[in-house]
Amino acid sequence: MKLQILKCEKCNEYTLKEKCSKCDSKTINPKPAKYSETDRMSKYRNIARKAQ
Ligand SMILES: [Zn+2]
Questions:
Q1: CA dist., res. 18 & res. 29, Å (int)
Q2: Residues with Cβ within 5 Å of ion ligand 1?
Q3: Ligand 1 centre from 20 Cα, in Å?
Q4: Measured in angstroms, how far is the CA atom of residue 49 from the centroid of ligand 1?
Q5: What is the tens place of the pLDDT at every residue in 19-42?
Q6: Which residue, of 2, 6, 12, 35, has the fewest CB within 10 Å?
Q7: Distance CA 18, CA 14 (A)
């Protein structure tokens, strides 16, 4: 999967670009792929697994 959905945290907008077209700030990857940061993310991982 090459197209990656990124998100601007300021505008709460999803985009495919590395910079937000509205506020020009750097976008982030909303779903961590390989590494999990905290246990708080585990429920999001479950949702992502179901969606695939
Ligand atoms: Zn923005």
A1: 9
A2: 8, 10-11, 20, 22-23
A3: 5
A4: 27
A5: 999 999 999 988 765 655 566 667
A6: 2
A7: 11
